[in-house]
Structures are given as C-alpha cells and as structure tokens.
Design goal:
Strand order of the largest sheet: 6-7-8-1-10-9
Strand content: 35-45%
Number of strands: 25
Helix content: 10-25%
Distance between the termini: 47 Å
Shape: elongated
Largest sheet: 6 strands, mixed
Structural class: mainly beta
Number of helices: 5
CATH topology of the largest domain: Deoxyribonuclease I, Chain A
CATH architecture of the largest domain: 4-Layer Sandwich
Length: about 425
C-alpha cells in the first residue's frame, strides 16, 4: 500500500472534571496547491479558481478539523473564506514550504504545533526531495478551551494528539525505501486504519480496487488514510468514513483536486481508570514524558505514598512514589534535573494528593514552571521553587487523586500536567 497524505490521531488525554464523551469530524484533503506550471493535476478551471472554491466549501461544511496537504502556492486563496478560529501559519510555497496546514474549529495547546522534515526523501520520481515534506504535530483540545487555547483554570480539557503526514510519493525503489523510512519515523505500528475497520471489517484487502474520481463510495482503497489510536485516558472510535469528492466539485461539476478527500467522524469517551489535568508551562523544547503507560500496567488500587520536589529559582524536578495492590509494591516516578533543594512529604493511610498549584514565567525567552504546591486531602502542603504572578490551580474531581505526571522536561520542568487515578 502506498501512503501519501495521512492523518494520525494518537494519545488522547482527558482532563479532570471534563465532559466524559463527545465526537468530532476530520477532513483530510490534498488541495493540489502546486503551481500549475509544475503540476496542472488535470483539474479544469485553473488552480486559483479551484483553490477559492475549495475554501468556500471548507467554510460551508464547517468540519471540526481540516488537514490539508500540498497547500503550497494558493494558501491564502483556499483559506481566506473559512471562519475557523484556529489555523496554522503557512510555511510557504514551493520550494520553501511543506504544504501541510490545518484549519480547526478546535483550539490546540499553545506552543504544541510543530513541523518535522523527513529524515529521508527520494528524487527517484515525483521530485519529493525538492520540498521539505514531512509531518506536523499538534495537541488539540476537544473541549473546555477557548479559541486561543486558554482555559478556565479548572482543568476542563480533553486533548487528542494529531500527526499529519505527507510521505514520499512514487513507486521507484528509492521512493519505497524513503516512504518506509517516513512511516518508521512516526512509529506507524499499533495504529488502526479507519477504512479497514469500517469498510473491511478489519480484514486487509489483497486488492483494494480502483477508485473513481470523485469516488462514488468507499468500497475501494485510496492512498489517503486516517489512522487512529486510543490510550488509557481516552477511547477513540470511528463512526463514519467517506470519500468526500462529491462534496468538493465546482459549479460545473468538475473536481477541484486530483485526490479524493477523506472525511471521518470519531467519538471519544473518557478512561474509567486514569484521567489528566490540563498543562501549564512551555512546550516544544523539552523532552516529552508520560507516566500513563506505567500506571496503566500497575495493579489497582494505586496510591501516592510520597511526594518529592526539587526547586529554588525555578522548579527543577517532580517525583512521586506510588504503591499498588494494597501496598504489595512501589514505583518511583521521577522527572527533571538535580538542581535546587529537595523537599518531600510522606502521605498517611487515607491521605491523598488532591490539589495542585503551578506558577510559570520566562527564562531565556522560554516559558517554564517556576513553582509547585501540592495540597493533600488532610490539608497538608508541600511546595518548591519561586512563586510568580502567572499561576494555575488544579483540583482533582471528587474521588480522584494525583498518581503521576506528564509534560516536557530538561534540567528543569518546562511543561507539566497531572495524571489522576481513582481513590
């Protein structure tokens, strides 16, 4: 199977006190935005006119998230009519841009959007090495956040990570090697193909058939895919899949792009064992960590036994010792550097970490966490670092406690969120 433009959804995360279910739509569309002199695509009416009509269709349908590929030289034309509050800044036309952009009615975590070039590309055919093709990443809030990504301070957010790909094209040996390397770069295994699940009952086809353009139905297979993966925090389930080419036609009935768009609807539901707070601090420059996989494999009941922080001018590290299976084992979760002074608090039986406060500020032009305070169900506290005027308070829902962390770290704690488990 040859992949070209692909949308991946992974690692959904539910914030405490958020709604426990919902749904959202995704459109993945190659908008054929290469200059006509390089690739006319066989689309009648001209590239500029097609881009304008595509933009008007985006505005008309109002899908929650629209991922575009080959969005090169007609970006302003195709996005101008839309009213989506969140959109990625273009990285430019050919040869500077990757052609990957997103329009969204859902905000993403401030600072989470990233562009990544493929480690390997090929010019065996299709001229893939002439543009910085690769993938983008963003952490989208499905509920509880304003258009600018800000929140009400109560942790009412549901996150899903989006990876949007445009792999190396062509069928020569060099193209195939590059494309396989592209998929390895984003760890394509353990992801479920929505087309295979909904239209093939989970059975891989020996021959996917040939699709018309626009495709009349989704019984055939195309190179554009929407893949997904759930997590212990949020379950994702596709409930609708179609090739949306018939929705993107000009007034005279001609296609607007040389690719069939893919339209998917997914529902989400909260994890019943682990949940997550929102984030505080800065993103994209630290190393990502997440205690969810450890906690998910830990037998219940899980209980925080000892809280440890390091900090002075800023927050250097956070740590938590948890016990499980009624005290039969313990695990230490430690994240950050070795700077600052260490403080710790051992929790009694029947005492739980239920409230947190984080303060952030700027250091070397980067946002970091400067201070943390933990408050237990018995009113005892532990704090480290230096308070600032930018703070956020996190409270676990009744019946839940802090049992782990996730975020980004270096020598200090850059971005931090809390993982909650049931008491």
């Amino acid at each position: 199977m040859k992949f070209t433009s692909t949308t991946l959804i992974a690692q959904g995360a539910l914030a405490a006190a958020a709604a426990t279910s919902g749904d959202f739509t995704i459109l993945s569309m190659n908008v054929a935005g290469l200059p006509a002199i390089l690739n006319p695509n066989g689309v009648p009416g001209g590239k500029e006119a097609s881009a304008k009509t595509i933009g008007s269709k985006f505005a008309q349908y109002g899908y929650d998230v629209i991922h575009m590929q080959e969005d090169f030289n007609y970006h302003a034309t195709s996005t101008q009519p839309t009213l989506t509050p969140s959109r990625t800044p273009t990285s430019g036309g050919v040869p500077l841009g990757s052609g990957l952009n997103t329009l969204s009615n859902l905000p993403w975590l401030p600072g989470s959007f990233q562009r990544q070039k493929w480690n390997k590309s090929s010019c065996a055919s299709e001229f893939d090495c002439l543009t910085p093709k690769g993938f983008t990443f963003m952490r989208v809030a499905l509920s509880g956040a304003a258009a600018d990504g800000s929140t009400d301070g109560k942790g009412n957010e549901v996150y899903v990570d989006f990876y949007k790909l445009h792999t190396d094209a062509g069928t020569e040996k060099g193209d195939l090697e590059a494309r396989n390397d592209n998929l390895r770069q984003v760890k394509e295994k353990r992801l479920t193909d929505t087309w295979i699940e909904l239209h093939r009952d989970g059975v891989l086809p020996s021959d996917g058939g040939v699709c018309g353009h626009p495709a009349e139905n989704a019984t055939c297979e195309i190179v554009d895919k929407v893949l997904y993966r759930s997590s212990p925090l949020v379950k994702l389930e596709p409930t609708g899949f179609e090739y949306a080419g018939l929705k993107f036609l000009s007034d005279d009935g001609n296609v607007l792009s040389d690719y069939n768009p893919v339209l998917v609807n997914l529902t989400w539901s909260a994890g019943d064992r682990l949940r997550q707070s929102e984030f505080w601090g800065g993103a994209t420059y630290g190393s990502w960590f997440n205690d969810v996989s450890i906690l998910d494999s830990t037998p219940e009941p899980i209980k925080a036994r000892k809280i440890t922080f390091r900090g002075e001018s800023r927050l250097d590290s956070v740590a938590l010792t948890i016990s499980y299976s009624s005290g039969q084992g313990t695990t230490e979760l430690v994240h950050g550097g070795r700077g600052g002074s260490e403080v710790s608090l051992t929790l009694a039986d029947g005492e739980f970490w239920t409230k947190s406060e984080l303060c952030q500020s700027e250091k070397s032009d980067k946002t970091r966490n400067f201070y943390i305070k933990a408050t237990t169900s018995k009113g005892r506290t532990l704090e480290a670092g230096t308070r600032t005027s930018e703070y956020k308070v996190f409270e676990a829902e009744e019946g839940w406690q802090v049992v782990g962390f996730l975020g980004e770290i270096g020598d200090e704690v850059d971005l931090l969120g809390f993982i909650y488990g049931k008491i």
